[in-house]
Design goal:
Blueprint (H helix, E strand, L loop, with lengths): L18 E6 L3 H14 L2 E7 L2 H11 L3 E4 L8 H10 L6 E6 L5 H6 L4 E4 L4 H26 L14 H4 L11 E5 L2 E5 L4 E7 L2 E6 L3 E3 L5 H6 L6 E5 L2 E4 L3 E6 L5 E5 L6 E3 L2 H11 L2
Parallel strand pairs: 1-2, 1-3, 3-4, 4-5
Antiparallel strand pairs: 6-7, 8-9, 8-12, 9-10, 11-12, 13-14, 14-15
Helix pairs in contact: 2-3
Amino acid sequence: MRSRATPARQDNANSAGAISAIIADDEQLARDELNFLLGEIGGVEVVAQVANGVDALEAIEKLEPAVAFLDIQMPGLDGLSVVRKLRERGIEPPHVIFSTAYDQFAVEAFRLEAMDYILKPVERERLEESVARARRLLAEKALQEGQAQEPGGERKNEATSLPAGLGAAARVAPSFNKLLLKSGARNLIVDPQELIYATIDDGVITLVTGQAEGQANFRTLEELQASLDPGVFWRAHRSFVVNIHKIREVVPWFKSSFQLKMDDKKATEIPVSRMQSKRLREMLNL
């Protein structure tokens, strides 16, 4: 017998500004634990809990939650298939956070543009990071939609203050795939705009964001760049790709070259190649 979507007990379900979510997991204890942790974190209204993929699909269609916490292996439909079915029906999936005991599905989850991939047992700190990311993405989307609706309004972003040659293309915000970042035993799925810089050393590509650092599943920087917005990500050096929105300072260096001080926790200084230094001078009138 199918398990119908049942309302979840949530102390702050009616609190202002709460983001709506469903939990789909075939284990009652796992659902209860996740709901409890979300209640402790606060700001999340769990509108339904379901025990299989078929009911998860129905709950998403009916309730239109902002976020869906999906187990991978569930009866009826697995979590990955739920996302595929939504797309087949022309329904935009909510922000999907997979919660599973298996790490081997991370790459497929990444291909389906999951927002995050959390391994069980779920840790509160890890879940809090994921909820914060969801809240930030929802806020950015609401802001973009609000700006788009303003009559005669012109969307402003960081690229507006950049020279045309460096940032004009960044005014267009196309949809790009998520990036998979492997940090120890964790497989993090991050949005490209969160990437501060990428570097390659001995054939290993390292991705650095404001919150994490880890290895990418790309073989070359060229392959990574092909998946990124060319108006935002710049090959400053043969070993570095940088997010132009994350450059904190341009530092003059010897022989008319430059270094870029990035906006990461370490304030990493990245060399600019001789050829790119010339281009940088031209673009910034240095």
